[in-house]
Amino acid sequence: MRAPPVGYISAHEDAGPETSEVMVVEREPEVLVVGAGVVGVATAYALAERGQRAVAIDAGAVGEGCSYGNAGLIAPSSSMPLAAPGVLSQGLRWMLDKDSPFYIKPRPDPALVSWLLRFRAAANEQQAHAAVPLLRSLKLAGRKLYDRWTQLDGMDCDYAREGVIHVYCSRAGLAEAEVMARRFQTDGLPFEVLDADALKARVPNLRGGVAGGVLFAGDGRVNPAKFVTRLAGLAEAAGATFLERTEAIGFTTSRGRITAVETTKGEFRPAQVVLAAGAWSPGVVRDLRLNLPIQAAKGYSLTFHRPEGYLDIPLLLAEAHAAINPIGPLVRVAGTLELAGMDFSINRRRVAAVRRAGGQYLEGFEELDLIETWRGMRPCTPDGLPIISRTPNWENLVIATGHAMIGMAVGPVTGEIVADLIRGEEPGFDLELMRYERFA
Ligand SMILES: Cc1cc2nc3c(=O)[nH]c(=O)nc-3n(C[C@H](O)[C@H](O)[C@H](O)COP(=O)(O)OP(=O)(O)OC[C@H]3O[C@@H](n4cnc5c(N)ncnc54)[C@H](O)[C@@H]3O)c2cc1C
Q1: Which of 267, 285, 400, 428 is the most buried (most CB within 10 A)?
Q2: Could you identify the atom of ligand 1 that is nearest to the CA of residue 64?
């Protein structure tokens, strides 16, 4: 066997006891990406494409965090931040309802209290006015990357651009949606209002009782787990390395720089570090004394076998706050938002409510064959915008987290922005609203 180059160390244990091949791990990569969800994988790919030596580590397996079982909508049509006007008062009313799509677990946690205060301050018209165009342009740029990347060899991931329908039970809701669609209409967001009959003709499985819907023909959908793992394959082919079951457990610093990242599989001494650990991020960087106001917002999805011809377009159910996505041979319903900390327990009552939402809108839904019940933690900032930023504290760190409900759609463009920041290049986006310092 050829001797490993300087800066590389063999990691026999990673190859497994049965394997004679020795896996060689680079200990001094140009970039170490912490976390291999959609954001970390897209970052590793964008870096590898630009010729940077990147190693991405994950405490678990690639793409098994929040990027695994989410709804998979690549929908620029839905660009309202979580901190939208009226959300908090509605949320507080929902707190009393155990089946509601929103829940805050009451607990004496100063980080939660401070997050809620910031959330309340951000949930206003003025903030939404600034956030919506930014989120929409990030999503449109993300969708372009999906269009491009899913054409590459080995990227079969059930990506389709056949539109998404926002469904409304109330006439007032439908009318308001039409006004919003007109207000935010751009070339990338053509829409069509469907009355109840037109909607039923487009979605024959739909039950009666809905007022209508707005079809955004340019929206897309994907199988998230397939997309992330296949993109990791492309990144590997382009020169990136992925190390699973490799957890970052601490940092060594000197004079405003991270000099080493300690992991459960030994120490790395990268030139630059990217934090892409989703909802885990605040805990991961505890050593670095950063103020990352991110709360984990748990959501659920249920995935079923999709019978031939059953539902061929994703639905966003406005009143139920749930999404139903036909993904290749599967159909998935997803919803709920629980601010309960990093508590991965499954609340069966809320899972049942998500399933019921599907049944309330679609005929035959209750009879579908369940394959998987999943929960995931959305990484939520209080103003609903991600943090894609360097910090004043550590000159060789880039933060890429806080993608809340939009990470699947925006992950690819985040990867590109981070790669540009790492290389000192102009990212082509105004990053002001996503700076770390807005919370410092
Ligand atoms: C029910 C539901 C539906 C959703 N639907 C959509 C949708 O339709 N469209 C959309 O755009 N978004 C959707 N989202 C949001 C989207 O899933 C997230 O925004 C996105 O997956 C976040 O990606 P990430 O890479 O930041 O985090 P993750 O995918 O969670 O990745 C973080 C990774 O970091 C790793 N990690 C943690 N700690 C460490 C450590 N110490 N060392 C190394 N690795 C570590 C974890 O193991 C994990 O793999 C949905 C979310 C939920 C819950």
Answers
A1: 400
A2: 49
